[in-house]
Amino acid sequence: MDEKKKTHKIKIPKKIPWRDNAFSMATLYSILTAMVGVLLALIIADKEIKDDWHWPIAMLGVSFICFIWGTEKLSDALDEDDVDKYLAWFEVYNFGVVMMFFGMATYIYLHYQLLFWYDGLLIFVIAFIASLKWIIDFIDLIRYNNMKYDKYRKELKGDLPPEQDRDLIMNIFEWTRRKIHD
Length: 182
Known about the structure:
By secondary structure, the protein is mainly α. The protein has helices spanning 17-20, 22-45, 54-80, 83-111, 117-143, 146-157, 168-181. Helix 2 (22-45) packs antiparallel against helix 3 (54-80).
């Protein structure tokens, strides 16, 4: 008697990037919320800032609220399996990060009472450069036409492979490795 060999196919679940990365995002939101909370406590207790103390408090307060809302709405999006809710509230997160960088820059400017306009300008240029990735993400998500937005949604849902986004650091790293190994 010949026994038929049974073959079992193991079904590997589809990777869904926005859902698979959600817990890392929630952790990041929580860390940023705690960090901004510490900065707010530091600024409120700072006796060095006499004028305009409300600017860094307002910016960091908005950032704090954006991170808290973002965390809560991320869990709603996961619960509802709604990538569109995730993307909409991702914009709130992006805005919160930008407010955090500019709130920190404003605090540094006011705390150290910089006298020269170019010192203040330098701090805000650094804040702008530091937050540029989130500014670009914010603008891109709003600016995407329907076709590009749908493609991005499909990438996040795992229906399309993600488009590789090479940034400046990756290009510098690749160029350096080529120069060293050539």
